Amino acid sequence: MTFIEPGLTAAESTPTARGGWPGLLRACVLVLVAMTVLQMLLGRFLGPSLIVLDILVVTGLVLLRHRTRTGVGVIAGACLLNLLVHSGLLVYMLSSPESGPVFAATSLNALASLTGLIAAVPAWRTRRVARAGGRARSVLLAAGVLAGVSVVASTALWLTRDQDTARAGDILLVTDGTRVDRAALEAPAGEISVLLRNDDLFSPRAFDIDALDVHLTVPPSTTRRVTFSAQPGRYAFHDEITFTPATGGSLTVH
């Protein structure tokens, strides 16, 4: 059963009674939580920023029922933060369609965030009407279960991730998330192996040499190797996730 709040016209209340913009926000929250869970599962990492994002949007979902504008504001703010804080990772993953499921999950993540921002404007202007709470409780329960599964499952997968160990001839490069331990690498021409150790506890990092079509992404607290061939010359390397000068440098091949 629904009723129109005092001061509202039927035109203002009808869309909300049917779900309308607040209903679309709920759908965006569910998709966003589901995709962040999937991203962590596929990437075998535990992302505190993604978990905080899930907590924020689920909190907004709780507030949406009785404090519509507050809930809308929390959800819109979380969507905006997601796009800003994870912009580097989103751009990197969206530019790699060959990654398959990761590309799909990232696409839906970005789409849900953008849709949430767009829907927040008319939802902010639409007052909430009272309705039965069974469906809302089911939605909240489902979102809570997904958030809990994300913590447990992604932690388990991260603990069982693959690690590469050093071999003779490897060039060891260490990144702590904000910089690399050395910006100048050297190697003889021919087959070259770079062992990237990512000491960042929470975020994946990458080693990329565009001129040689070399691209390696390493999960948090993980060591991975990439092997490639190169002729004499100087090649710039960088991290396509961070896009900062401190995580790049050059490889000189003699």
Total strands: 8
Low-confidence stretches: 1-18, 128-133
Number of helices: 7
Main sheet specs: 3 strands, mixed
Mean pLDDT: 80
Kindly give the count of domains.
2
Q: What is the 3D shape?
A: elongated
Describe the structure.
The chain has 254 residues and is α/β, with parallel strands linked by helices. The protein contains 7 helices and 8 strands. It has a 3-stranded mixed β-sheet, with no helix packed on it. Strands 2-8-7 form a 3-stranded mixed β-sheet, with no helix packed on it. A two-stranded antiparallel ribbon has the order 4-5. The chain is elongated, with a radius of gyration of 23 Å. The chain starts with 9 loop residues before the first helix and ends with a strand. The N terminus is likely disordered.
Strand and helix map with partners:
Blueprint (H helix, E strand, L loop, with lengths): L9 H8 L2 H24 L4 H19 L1 H18 L1 H8 L6 H25 L8 H26 L11 E5 L8 E4 L2 E9 L6 E5 L4 E5 L3 E9 L2 E5 L11 E5 L1
Parallel strand pairs: 1-3, 2-8
Antiparallel strand pairs: 3-6, 4-5, 7-8
Helix pairs in contact: 1-2, 2-3, 2-6, 2-7, 3-4, 3-7, 4-6
Briefly, what is this?
This protein is α/β, with parallel strands linked by helices and 254 residues long. It has helices at 10-17, 20-43, 48-66, 68-85, 87-94, 101-125, 134-159; strands at 171-175, 184-187, 190-198, 205-209, 214-218, 222-230, 233-237, 249-253. It has a 3-stranded mixed beta sheet with strand order 1-3-6, with no helix packed on it. Strands 2-8-7 form a 3-stranded mixed beta sheet, with no helix packed on it. Strands 4-5 form a two-stranded antiparallel ribbon.
